[in-house]
Amino acid sequence: MMAHIRDFAGKRVHMIGIGGSSMSGLAELLMKRGYRVSGTDRDEGYMLDILRREGAQVTIGHNPDAVNGADLVVYTAAIPPDNPELARAAELGIPTLTRAELLGQLMQGHEQAVGVCGAHGKTTASAMLAQALTGSGFDPTVHLGGRFDAIGGSTRLGDERVFVAEACEFNASFLQLRPTIAVVLNIDADHLDYYRDIEHIQETFEEFSSLLPPDGTVIGNGDDPRVRQLMDRARCRTVSFGLNDNNDWRPDGLILDERGRPRFGVIHNGERVASVSLAVYGEFSVYNALAALAAAVELGAEPERAAAALNAFQPVHRRFEITGTVDGVTLVHDYGHNPPEMRGAMRVAAMQPHNHLWAVMQPHTYSRLKSLFADYIHCCDEANTILVTDIFAAREVDPGDIHATTLVDAMRKDGVDAVYTPTFDDAERYLREHWAAGDLVLTMGCGNINLLNAQIQAHGDSPGR
């Protein structure tokens, strides 16, 4: 019989892989609810320092002794079955839960549970929904895959009425959730180390939508053919959003200003119900905002009030985040780690004031680079120069048949100005040797590439500048 988090109130929960974007948020949520939390991770990271300050006992390295005295062990899908801490938990008879099982259990008992899923935009759309709801007088519980200043972190503990959660499709983990509302932003090829192909991904998203109760609602991107197909097959009510006229929610008079910030009226079922003027960038932000508005209104919010809250929306950390200026060069970081996300971030970067536009790409996992290799070659074409660091392995072991230089060589062969800079020190050195005031540097990846921005800023302006 599966353990349940409610049976461990006030007890110690040990989390393996606690520094992950979702796990760290769950750790915060547990501590807010009175649980004692410990955890381990492979490497240091800024989230671990935050968790320590909030009271978690966090150590680096996977040590079986770290489990001793725990009442429950939670682990991510990236943790292999032979992990020494998992083995010790089994030896000691300590019950275990996966990250997704824990999230699903925490969502139980709420009147409405919203799962926001899709290959791209989950964190931002979930954060927008959280802001639309709080700005409309709701008190939602929230779990995001990134830090959002408006709620004081990646989680918010609210009342029992609404739970908003980012629903991740990696390893089909979102099938552990039981939402009453599913927001489906897009269906695209990713995580092909788990899914056999795009059809398998489509099937799994449809399985997620089938978890909704008969009186549930699928809110889907009607401009995405695969999402539209999912809605056509849904066994509950559906609501569409998108830029095309055949959607229930769509923009009216959409314009992007000179930096790519959208302004538009909001049309719901043929009637103009609100106006939006976003401080964040890109056409993809329009989709996220429409999804958030549709979900907020479905939950009972007034369109004008929800839209006004979105006008004050500031991005989640690591989502096209301007981190500082060094040598007169603007430094920006984005979490984008697959070709469509990087392409979108580059499109926004190209609209910002700049002389030379630099992209620094950290490929994320060997399997992703291999499966989407052809798409990576030209996903940063709007940059003048692209630096490529070594692959961030994450949960994977080097298979020996793919390398960052493989991508750089393919880019150069196709006429792309690409440079291999294996380490952060190499990338910083190359940038400082070649950049000039007025340039813009965009670092991209969901590994630790954000630390390059921090490193450059810590070193400050170059001597003589």
Detailed description of the structure:
The chain has 465 residues and is an alpha/beta fold. 32% of the residues lie in helices and 24% in strands. It has 15 helices and 21 strands. The protein has helices spanning 21-32, 46-53, 84-92, 99-107, 122-134, 198-209, 225-233, 283-298, 303-311, 339-350, 366-371, 373-377, 404-413, 424-434, 450-459, and strands at residues 12-16, 36-41, 57-60, 72-75, 96-98, 112-117, 141-148, 153-156, 162-166, 181-184, 217-221, 237-241, 249-256, 262-268, 271-277, 321-326, 329-334, 357-361, 385-388, 418-420, 440-444. The strands form four sheets. The protein has a seven-stranded mixed beta sheet with strand order 8-7-9-6-10-11-12, sandwiched between helices. It has a six-stranded mixed beta sheet with strand order 16-17-21-18-19-20, sandwiched between helices. Helix 6 (198-209) links the parallel strand 10 (181-184) and strand 11 (217-221). The longest helix is centred in the middle third of the chain and has 16 residues, at 283-298. The model has no long low-confidence stretch (mean pLDDT 94).
